[in-house]
Amino acid sequence: MSGSRWPLAFGAFGAFAAFALFLAAGTVSARAVDVHSPAAGVLCDGYICADKDGVSQGLTERYLGKKIAARTFSRGPFDHSAFTFSNGVFCDVKECLCREDRYFNAKGQRSPVSAKYTRLLFGKPAAGASCQAARGQ
């Protein structure tokens, strides 16, 4: 009789394991929020929102909610002018550029510029204008 319990026990365990994997997959995909632009000149992921001036608590509250903003901004001071979104894109408001990631290559050069996210966040500055002039400073 005990032999007939093993398939049932293993089957129940297998069903539980499959259900746990299903829940875990849903949790992971729910956290992997794409970077999006809810308004002109604003980029958000699941944790922060930023504009041409950097990470903004007000924009984060507006587009992601007060709970997420409180969680993000209660972790202590951080540099609001250089930040990495959850998809790995790195933006620096001092350069008015977003890059594919925040890393340097073996030659000490930053990753390539992300034209898409630079345009979404900073727009197209006038030819020859400095970053600060394009930002109105």
Task: Offer a concise description of the structure.
This protein is 42% helix and 15% strand.
Architecture blueprint of SSEs:
Blueprint: H1 2-31, E1 36-39, E2 42-44, E3 49-51, E4 54-55, H2 57-64, H3 66-73, E5 82-84, E6 90-92, E7 97-99, H4 115-122, H5 131-134
Query: Terminal Cα separation, in Å?
Result: 82 Å
Q: Based on Cα principal axes, name the global outline.
A: globular
Overall SS class: alpha+beta
Give the ordered list of helices and strands.
HEEEEHHEEEHH
Mean pLDDT: 80
Strands across the major sheet, in which order? Answer: 1-2-3-4
Could you name the ranges where pLDDT drops below 50 across 5 or more consecutive residues? 6-31
Radius of gyration: 22 Å
Helical segment count: 5
- Percentage of residues in DSSP E strands: 15-25%
| Largest beta-sheet details | 4 strands, antiparallel
State the total count of DSSP E strands: 7
Signal peptide: 1-32
Keywords: Signal
3D structure, described in words:
Keywords: Signal. Residues 1-32 form the signal peptide. InterPro entries: Uncharacterised_YcgJ. With 137 residues, this protein is an alpha+beta fold. The chain has two domains: 1-32; 36-134, no CATH class. Helices cover 42% and strands 15% of the residues. It is built from five helices and seven strands, in the order H-E-E-E-E-H-H-E-E-E-H-H. The protein has helices at 2-31, 57-64, 66-73, 115-122, 131-134; strands spanning 36-39, 42-44, 49-51, 54-55, 82-84, 90-92, 97-99. The chain has a four-stranded antiparallel β-sheet with strand order 1-2-3-4, with helices on both faces. A three-stranded antiparallel β-sheet has the order 5-6-7. Helix 2 (57-64) packs antiparallel against helix 3. The radius of gyration is 22 Å and the shape is globular. The N and C termini lie far apart (82 Å). The model is unreliable at 6-31 (pLDDT under 50).
